[in-house]
Structures are given as C-alpha cells and as structure tokens.
Design goal:
The structure is a single chain. By secondary structure, this protein is mainly α. The protein has one domain: MFS general substrate transporter like domains (Growth Hormone, Chain: A, Up-down Bundle). Helix content is 74%, strand content 0%. Helix 1 runs antiparallel to helix 9 and helix 3 packs antiparallel against helix 17. The chain is globular and about 60 Å long. The two termini are 30 Å apart.
Length: 464
C-alpha cells in the first residue's frame, strides 16, 4: 500500500474499510481481560507469598525484622526493570504491532512464575535460592513492563470513540481480577495445607497453576486481530524507526507528568497488591496477629470492590471526562487513607475488610480511566512507547517500594501514622499531576491526526 496519506476512517471502521463488528470488539475485550488477569495473577501471587512465606523460606538467616524488609524489597526490585520491559515492548509494539508483544509478555511471565514454584529453599541450596528468586522476579518485572501498554492499546484503539473509557477499563479490571484470583487461591491453599504444610509446599501450588493459566491466555490472545491503528500505520509503512528517541525528544515532560498520575494510585494500591497489609495483619509478632485465610479473603473482597469501581469509572469517564473522573477518585481516596490503619488496627476481620473496600473505591476511580487517558495523550506513531514507559516510571515512583517504605517506617517509629502521611503525599502528587493535564477525551487516534495528537495536553504548553 502506498505511503500517501488517505482520508480519515469513519468511527467504527477498520483501515481496510470493513466495519468493526460487535463480535470483533467483544473478542478483543474478552482477550484483554483474560490476558491481563493471568499476567497480574502471576505478578500478585509473588507479592502474596512475599508477605506470607518468603521471609521464612528464602530470607530467614537475615533475622526476623530484616528478612521481612528483604522479602518486600524483592517485590519492589522488579519495578526497576519495568522500564526495560517498557522500552523493549514499546519499540517492538510501535515497530511490529501490539499483538506480538502481548504474546511474548504472557509467555515470559508464565514461565518465570512457574519456575518460582519449583525453586528450592534457602535451607536446601543456601544463598543461591534468594538469588534465583530475585532473578525470576526481575523477569516478571520485564514482562509486566511490556504487558500493560499492549493490552491497553488493543482495547482502546479497537473502541468506538464514545466508549474508549469503557473498553479501556477491560485490561484495567484484569488487575483486580488477578488480585482476586491470587488472594482466593492462596486462601484456599491455607485450608488445604494449613500451618507448616503451607510453608513447606502449599504456597507453591498457586505458582505451578500459572502454567495452566498461561496456556488458556495464549489460546485466547492469538485469536485477536491486530489493533486497527497499527494496521493502518503498517499498511502505509509509516512505523517510526526509533520511537523511544522521538518520545523523549518531544514528549519527555508529558511522560513525567503521566507517570506521576499513576504513581499516586500505585503507591496506595500496593498496600494490598504488594502484600503489605496482609503481612502486617498476619504477623504473629505484630499488634494484630490475624489468621492468614481470613485476611486473604478480605483482600479478595476488596478486589471485587476495586473491580466494580474500576469498571464504573471507565464507563463514567466517557460521560464526564477522564480528568474529572480522576479528580473524584483522588478526593475519595484521601479519607480512605486516613481511615485505613485506624480500622486495621482494631484487630478484627470486619474492620480490616471495610478498610480495604473503602480504599478500593478511590483506587478504581483513579485506575479505570487510565487506559483511555494514556492512549489519548500520545501520538499514534509513538503511542505504545509513551503509554508503556509512563506506566513503568509511574510504577517505580509509586508502588515499587511502597511496602518496603511502609515496613521501614513502622519498624523505625513503632507507629503506622507515618505510613498514612506518606500515602497522603503520594495522592497529592497524583492529584497535582492530573490538574496539569487537559482532558483529551474523544481525540482522533489514527495516524491521519498525528499533528493534532502532537499538540501538548499540558496546560501552558502549545507544543510537546
């Protein structure tokens, strides 16, 4: 096909001129939900195990307190490698398509997770055990860094203009679904393998289950067509040769602000998805000492609330705009943060569940619109790089070491109030970054509108 520009396609049409049917779009939504659920199940099952068993089976020689910090740090270290995954996936996704990247990241994550389930403990092979564990967590981080951008673009670039928030919520709800699945399976294993049996072999089963889930996800994803926006770019032979160079040369400030938006959400979210609250509530030497099973079910219940609020926020952002939806989310999150530890520290499972569910509402409102928001911020030719790298940097600034920071604050001060103020600061950073961005809901996404897309969405700037 000639590289000569062609007229913009009407909403609902693919680059070849055929109508994108309801069945096509439903298949895309289903595939993105299933794929991201499997990916994030893998990612979160590690965080659950880090909170519950890894300090004992991999880091115990460091001593009780420091072993817990090392265990949470192993959760966070993967975030440092998310940008590498985002760079690689962004380059491949902008050059060769969204679909191929999604297949690669799914396989990479599944293999790493399955191998964690087969790792010998420190007692069996010594220092090699935590080294191999951290290596596999790094592989998970590389995969997670590339997964999100591809899933988001497949969903949003297939969507009708008036339903991008709703379609974009489909990969987003895969995250709470992954958390729900991880929490539920871990909780079931505490019943099947209680006490010492859980430490000996029970925790491994959820990791080994990943192999089956990855086969399901792979089968579903390979049946989905490439994003229509990338198909048009490829047909015109207009793929950018060095998309990352173009991104940072023209849009570096936008990448930073978009990353800070996500950082606020991610820091708060990783109190549960990073396993901190679960570890804090079940620590037998801590102030609460609840049983593992009920705490995991509380996290699962909060995941349902997070899922519903994420879906609703995506839907409502199509009506009131991404920016307004985000602002509502930040305002909901602030009182939930101040209620979190007073409720958790009451020491009963009902209060813990209520605290996590309240937090989940604000998390959903600042997560549901993110896919559409990010997609509408960046030009088509460098969009995969833009959304992936912004997301990865935001994860480092936000959730990467949030559980580790929280653990260190509590151990240093003997109080959770410092954690509350830390989370409040992160939310205010996210709110400020949101206020700096213009709402671009409904902006054309195709390559015909590259000039319009390249105008900066940052208040006060005419060019990116």
């Amino acid at each position: 096909m000639s590289a000569t520009p062609t007229p913009a396609h009407p909403e609902g049409f693919t680059p070849t001129g055929t109508i994108a049917t309801h069945a096509d779009r439903r298949r895309v939504v289903f595939a993105t939900v299933v794929g991201t659920t499997v990916e994030w199940y893998d990612f979160f099952i590690y965080a659950q195990a880090a909170a519950l068993v890894f300090a004992t089976v991999f880091f115990e020689p460091a001593g009780a307190g420091f072993a817990a910090i090392l265990s949470f740090a192993s959760v966070g270290i993967s975030f440092l490698f998310r940008p590498l995954g985002a760079f690689l996936a962004g380059h491949l996704g902008d050059r060769y398509g969204r679909r191929v990247v999604l297949m690669l990241t799914l396989i990479l994550m599944g293999v790493a997770t399955t191998l964690v389930g087969l790792l010998p403990t420190y007692a069996a092979i010594g220092i090699a055990a935590p080294i191999l564990l951290i290596f596999l967590r790094i592989v998970q981080g590389i995969s997670a860094g590339g997964e999100w951008g591809g899933a988001v673009l497949m969903a949003v670039e297939h969507a009708p203009k008036t339903k991008r928030g709703l379609f974009g919520a489909s990969p987003q709800i895969g995250v709470p679904l992954g958390m729900l699945l991880a929490s539920a399976i871990m909780a079931i294993m505490t019943v099947i393998a209680p006490g010492d049996a859980f430490l000996e072999w029970g925790w491994r089963i959820p990791f080994l289950l990943s192999f089956v889930l990855i086969l399901v996800g792979y089968y579903i994803r390979r049946r989905v067509e490439e994003s229509p926006v990338f198909t048009e770019i490829a047909e015109r032979r207009e793929a950018t040769k060095m998309p990352i160079v173009q991104l940072f040369r023209k849009h570096w400030l936008l990448v930073l602000i978009a990353a800070l938006v996500f950082a606020g959400n991610n820091a708060v979210g990783y109190m549960t998805t990073g396993g901190y609250i679960q570890g804090y509530a079940t620590n037998p030497e801590g102030p609460i000492g609840l049983e593992r099973g009920p705490v995991l079910w509380a996290a699962a219940a909060a995941s349902v609330v997070w899922l519903l609020s994420t879906w609703f926020a995506g839907w409502v952002s199509d009506r009131i705009g991404r920016r307004t939806t985000y602002i509502i989310g930040w305002l909901l999150m602030l009182p939930a943060i101040f209620a979190l530890f007073p409720l958790v520290n009451r020491g009963d499972i009902t209060s813990l569940t209520l605290a996590l569910c309240l937090l989940a509402v604000g998390l959903g409102f600042t997560y549901g619109p993110q896919a559409a928001l990010y997609t509408e911020l960046f030009p088509a030719s460098i969009r995969f790089s833009g959304v992936s790298i912004s997301y990865a940097i935001g994860a480092i600034l936000g959730g990467a070491f949030a559980p580790t920071i929280a653990q260190a604050i509590v151990q240093a001060t003997g109080s959770t109030s410092g954690v509350t103020w830390y989370l409040t600061a992160m939310v205010l950073i996210g709110l400020t970054a949101t206020l700096l961005l213009k709402d671009r809901s409904g902006i054309p996404l195709g390559p015909d509108h590259e000039a319009e897309q390249s105008v900066s969405p940052i208040y006060g700037l005419a060019k990116a």
